[in-house]
Amino acid sequence: MKIVIKGGRVIDPETSFDRITDITVSDGKISRIGDTSETADCAINAEGKVVCPGFIDIHMHEDRITSQDTHKIFKTRALECMLNMGVTTAVGGNCGESPEDFGQYAGMLERAGMPVNFCCFMGHKTLRELVDLNDPYIPASDRHIEEMKSLLKKALQDGVVGISFGLEYTPGASTEEIIALGNVLHGFENRLMAAHYRYDADRGIEALQELIDISGENHLPMQISHLGSCCAFGNMKEGLALIDNAKRRGIDVEADCYPYAAFSTTIGSPVFDPGCFERWKSSYGAVLVAEGKYRGYYCDEYIFEDLRKHYPETIVVAFVMNQNEVMEAIQHPGIMVASDGYIHDGQGHPRVAGTFPKVLGRFVREEKTLDLIEALSKMTILPAKRLNFSKKGRIQEGCDADIVIFDPEQIIDRATFEKPLESPSGIEWVIVNGEVALQKSHPVNNQNGKIIRFGGA
Ligand SMILES: [Zn+2]
To answer: Amidohydrolase domain spans which residues (predicted)?
Structure first.
């Protein structure tokens, strides 16, 4: 398939290339950048539009499947939302939770076909459950750690990006357990640790320090997940300074953030253990129920306790962070934009469908609190470098043709807490691996994605 994209504002954040010109795509690659009169199978008029690398979402949560689903048609709703908001590569398996067997999961996705490229972390909480350590409040024994290490090794051989931790969800995990598992990555090239910190709010700084110490101790890169829900409680400045200081000392630590002041998880998780509302200086009424019998209600003590006790898997959204501090994180140099998107039974948090258009529409265009190229670099080249992608996140000749064409005057998120999966406006065309996947804002092909296996052939 040969595609010519005519007359758009072509932006490559890595080189600061920013010019009105044409792009030719052939055989899955960007074959030429520059004015052309060539004919093609598909000619796209991009006048007045921005043409940039497809977004790379370094932190999302993949569609869950259970062993009963393996023979059903596999629905990739989270990955469909990704495509609709311009993401061409998504990274799942975050916050300590991942498919149990990446090789099997990847095989199923490949058989079903996937809308965007996908790679995945192995989750630490999932490893714990695989070795029958189901109580998140207790530490792993030496035997558990040895068993987890060999499962992790197998996952790394199958091509996972690295290991993710969700320490707030596994409060019993010791720092030694984390360091021991991280060390397994040394046998493999280009792998990464990612972590959802152990504490938030008034203990957020202490929690960031633990992750920095682990990275320093292991000499491995650490990606700190969704910094907003750790530090947008009055300590963002301190958190950002701590990370910058660590980087100056040569510790390989980076962070990402989603552009919302509300977080989302299951109500039964340890995040909502007693003491949480005191920590957040908030109360039951800040928690919106996203699914189930109380869907659409804000909690009171009765609903909160009822769900915690009887329906702990219910997804809720907690409006407890400060928006201005979330913005401070997104604006900060080096902080990546990532969605943390998660869908359960068709419900969730609007970040799964709105993150990238929200940053480009609300922050860049409306509020002018972020420069366009700076915003794009947080969505493309920064995550690409973090993941050691040399052919993605760039508009350069020879790179993979993962491309987004959007209208900078129209782009906006439309997903809301009531309708979390609503597609954005202004994302007009998305090209995945050199094929048109979204045409005039409508998905036309959801089979163009590929599994990315690290270190694979
Ligand atoms: Zn998380």
So the answer is: 44-101, 325-436
**pLDDT tens digits for range 53-87:** 999 999 999 988 765 665 555 678 999 999 999 99
The domains of the chain are located at 54-261+321-344
Rounded Cα distance between 326 and 329, Å, is 5
Among candidate residues 344, 351, 338, the one with its CA nearest the CA of residue 263 = 351
**How many other CB atoms are found less than 10 A from the CB of residue 69?**
13
Query: CA torsion sign, 407 to 417 to 80 to 266?
Result: positive
C-alpha pair distances (Å), 390 with each of 39, 190, 353, 380, 382: 29, 12, 27, 12, 11
Q: What is the pLDDT of residues 393-427, one digit of tens each?
A: 999 999 999 999 999 999 999 999 989 999 999 99
On whether the 54-261+321-344 domain is CATH 3.20.20.140, my answer is yes
CA of 403 to the centre of ligand 1 (A): 28
Q: How far apart are CA 407 and CA 176, in angstroms?
A: 49
Q: Note whether 56 and 389 are within 8 A (CB).
A: yes
* 158-204 pLDDT tens trace: 999 999 999 999 999 999 999 999 999 999 999 999 999 999 999 99
Q: 1: CA distance to ligand 1 center in Å?
A: 39
Element spanning 126, H or E: helix 124-130
For residue 8, how many other CB atoms are within 10 A of its CB?
A: 24
Q: Where are the alpha helices (DSSP H) in 159-300?
A: 175-182, 204-218, 228-231, 236-248, 276-280
Instruction: Compute the average pLDDT of residues 139-147.
Output: 97
Query: Rg of the chain's alpha carbons, rounded to an integer?
Result: 21
Distance 385 CA to ligand 1 centre (A): 21
Give the whole-angstrom CA distance, residue 93 versus residue 64: 10
- Which residue has tokens 């092909």? 445
Question: Ligand 1 is a single-atom ion; what residues have CB below 5 A from it?
Answer: 95, 196
For residues 9 and 21, give the distance between their C-alpha atoms in angstroms, rounded to a whole number. Answer: 7
CA of 180 to the centre of ligand 1 (A): 21
